[in-house]
What we know:
The complex is a heterotrimer. By secondary structure, chain B is mainly alpha-helical. Chain B has helices at about 15-45, 50-65, 80-105, 115-130, 140-170, 175-195, 225-230, 235-255, 255-265, 270-275, 280-300, 320-330, 335-355, 365-400, 405-430; strands at about 70, 75-80, 210, 310.
Amino acid sequence: MSEYVIEMRHIRKEFPGIVANDDITLQLKKGEIHALLGENGAGKSTLMSVLFGLYQPEEGEILKDGKPVKINNPNDATDLGIGMVHQHFKLIDVFTVLDNIILGAETTKFGFLQKKEARKKVLELSEKYGLKVDIDAKVEDITVGMQQRVEILKMLYRENEILIFDEPTAVLTPQEIDELMEVMRGFAKEGKSILFISHKLNEIMAVSDRVTVLHKGKCVGTVNTKDVTKQELSTMMVGRPVQLEIEKKPAEPKDVILNVEGLTVSSKIHKTEAVKNVSFSVRGGEIVCIAGIDGNGQSELVYGITGLEKASSGKITLCGKDISNASIRKRSMTGMSHIAEDRHKHGLILDFTLEENFVLQKFRDKEFQNHGFIKFGAVRKYAERLIEEYDVRSGQGPVTVVRSMSGGNQQKAIIARELDRDEPLVVAVQPTRGLDVGAIEHIHKQLVAERDKGRAVLLVSLEMDEVMSLSDRILVMYEGEIVGELDPAKTNPQELGLYMAGAKRQDKEVE
Amino acid sequence: MYRVDSKTGKQKFYSTAGFQSIVSALISICIGLIVGMIIVIVVGLTREEISPKGMVEGVKLVFFGLFSTGRVENELTFGFNPANIGNMLFRGIPLIMTGLSVAVAFKTGLFNIGAPGQYLMSTAATLYVALVVPTDTIPAWLVWIFAFAAGIIAGALWGAIPGLLKATLNINEVITCIMTNWIAANLVTWFFDARDYLKNSGESGKIGYVKPTALNGVETAKMGLDKLFPGSQINGGIIIAIIIAILIYILMTKTTFGYMLKACGSNRHAAKYAGINDKVSIVASMAIAGALSGAGAALYYLSGHTEFYWSTYMSLPAEGFNGIPVALLASNHPIGVIFTGVFMSLLNIDGLMLKSLTAYNEFIADIIIAAIVYLSAFSMIIKQLIGRKNKKAGETNVNDETDAEALAAQKAIAEAAAKKTAEVQADAEGGNK
Amino acid sequence: MILLIQQTMIYAIPLMIVALAGIFAERSGVINLALEGIMIFGAFIGVLFVRTMQENQVFTQEQGQILMLLAFLVSSVCGALFSLLLSFSAITLKADQTIGGTALNLLAPAIVLFFINIIAQQNVLMMYTGDAASWFMIKPSTFGYERGHEFGLLGSLFLDKVYLTTYLCLIIFVVLSVILYKTKFGLRLRSCGENPQASDSLGINVYKMRYIGTTISGALAGAGGFTYALTTSNCASTGEVAGYGFLALAVMIFGNWTPLNVALGGILFGLFKCIAATYASLDINGDGVYMLAEIGVSPYVYRLLPYLITLIVLAFTSKKSRVPKAEGIPYDKGQR
Lengths: 511, 433, 336
């Protein structure tokens, strides 16, 4: 019997034009929690997809208990006792929790589903591990936290012994994260082996026994967690010493640029109010951060401010002008730049060229049109200037189709377009999502620079580190309300977490 | 907007998107024709009533029907046939227009499968105005313009309905277009059913048809084309169609309005974020598409001598659906549509030649067209595949920069850490012993 | 009233199974716009089969029911084969499903009319001998009774002057609906139309499920096409089914992609269709239709009502629509 339950040896996986995994070896001991650390795009998910049978590697082998195995599809993985909680949950929204759990592993009689036994088994598992779920509810109606418990139950229902968690904490509150860690430790104690994929150092330090670090598709090394520091891990992950803190001068707040009073926005999907009576203001020369767990009304708040969604009540003033009922275009002309949450959906037109994207708001300006005809020369010149100034890299310059650019450069293009408009207010929603550390640093520096120029920055972020290091003031949103205003210098992540989870709130009106 | 870099001018023609489109269109056409040929051959071999000679003639006509000049002493003759060419151009008019309709919608991210309905509504409006407005008091050319405008407006309004439903309630335009098609089919039949004075009586024409507009003196000017192609139905409509195609090309590529429509079609959300009124854009796109289909019907029936079979509730006009292959073959390029529209019309002429000269029938043309539509569904995929390949290659180049350095630094730390780990393990094992 | 109900059934039940055909394709994730085309093809094949069998005198008139059942089977098999063209482009080649469906809708009438003209030298293909009623309709004589035998109310409703295919379709509808909801296969099929990435991660072969869904869809539409031709067109094929396939699409949307609602929608739209079709016929006057004729509403109104109602329903339920989330999106294993 081998020491390792799973061994992946010298795995190589290529995609057209890119080597996602290059000679990676990963060894998982029975009963351990093994973290897989790496930046976005380092090859973690590809490696796990290989283990789970979703991809076939070009080279390398996989051993289960020392014996070579071939994993051609998820069925093989399940037969070997491998289960996975995917980063984006693999659930059918309109099915019930029970149907989701049994899907793919149904018990049948003459082809007909036998749900009674399945129900009993699921209830027992749920009881045993303290994974509370509403078994007959439809997945679309339950919380994200519960959806994750459904995913875990799916693995337990299949009696998996090797459990893969792919970035499981991204959607959870700090308290839920603690609970998950506890559950994971429980599994390990029972002899189940856990692979824990993350790019968050704190969690890895807290829960894992060993860490394997990947960088740009290559394996950097495997170490015992207790032998390394956070700083060392982050250097391994990024390839150079990283500034975990951003250098910035204290803020020098000036006049109020944006003032929001009693803003209420109803949710698109549900009939409820997503933003309830929110009031705050942002001054020039400061970065105000809206912190909170995903889905507590931050997106809707931004929709309300930028005009994508009609506010049901409240008053928004921008640069002294009432824009409560203005159109999106009017608002942006009054003085608002907007770095949207989802760059593919909202920020860019992927099938347009770079220069076409640069003039998305400005194509109707005198500068770029003449009696309704586009001035192509002016557009080209403008694009060339932005590319130069903001260091946007692309294959063919202004005529590159944006879809063909890397995520980091797409984001740079958006930032170039939005910041160059020189508006007094910058609304930035998760501006660093999905980017690697280098790009994140760059964007953070730029935002601080804009602040120092005297602009008002309203930042919405889900990343605790970003919130703590970048903001001058923190407003915490919970269930559509601002439940606290904190000074990043005087608070800590734990306290922030309590506000974010709704366990604590300041009762006084937030200014 | 501008695919080729004007500064370097380095992009070679064979690597441009336009060239790829032309090649894939030609491949589709060839395969379509081959499918037609195979069917002709197989049927010829299996049916007793078709002789081997008849079969060979059938194959010839599939490819060169346009140049058929009839039959002399039991042998097919070929040569320049001005009537066929004129008719090809004439029948190409509605195809160019519905092709433009579908192409504009595609360019703005919408699938206008509602062209048949828009075409029908326009037919009714055009015929009504052209037949009812008295030409003894109002000059016929003015009536022609009224009728043409009525057709365009009817088409635009009918097209705007799916647009409105898409813009306000986000209902898939394919479904609403299908529904509005059949509503139009019934409305138009109902309209003519209740108006006997618009119908041709048995004596002056075929039964079941609406009067041709020439009976009221309204017909499109020939512009001398009848002299160029004697014996054909050709008239100035083809010139109007070509002008409209050029205007649409300018609208879509050179103007801010076209930019707005395309932006909205490519990514409605991003356009909305950028302050473009997405709802207006979508409705405008569909209304323009409807207007173009409408213009097609108007030009076709205003020729003065074409008759409309009014009991249409059982089936939809082929001109509407055939706009889809016309647009797909042209990769939605408005100028390309002129050529593909005429090509589709050529196939129809081939079909008619087959029917009149052999034991085969005109439906072979429809089979070829259907095969081409089927193939064009993949040609888009093939083009996308080429695009994707280029992209992946580009990405790697941008990313790998300081890799070697970084890796060296990482390896050093990793090794140090691993050493530590090994020591600890050794300690632990030592301890155990 | 009996006639009205019988006539409605004749229109409603094929409508229901063709709508169910739509459900099977769309629930597996493939938009099947080609229902109309597949029906046209199925109708042609069924009629051609009947005609060929008659021509070669394989069956006598007394064996009409067997001939009809065989034709039903053959047209469903050929409908399934024809739908493979759609599956291949939509699933294997990941092409646009709307365009693929449209191609089939253009191809079916073209091919059918081409062959009908070759075979019959006209635009209609009919039975070789006799008519649908004398060969295939269930009458007192089918059970050995004499002509004019009274069955009583229920008997005359369900046993006199009806076609066996109507009941066959009804049984198929019920069985397949149960399969869709109560079996492992049904659960897996539905998952592929909602979130194929999830299905794939659970070891379900999405491509296979989608092929099966579309093929069942093709079989049902093919059989529906033959049933339509048999019961409403005197077992003749004309290269069209009068938009019946699109009407079925409307029924499916109206029924929100669930069999029970589709059954209701089928009956409602079948009733409209029946009123419109029998509006002018004399033998049914005196029945319910007579009253409707008296109102003086044009039959075209009844013909367009289903489409109009569907549009209105769509407009009001667009937010709550149960349209399968992944329908129309080709599944690509490489992208997740």
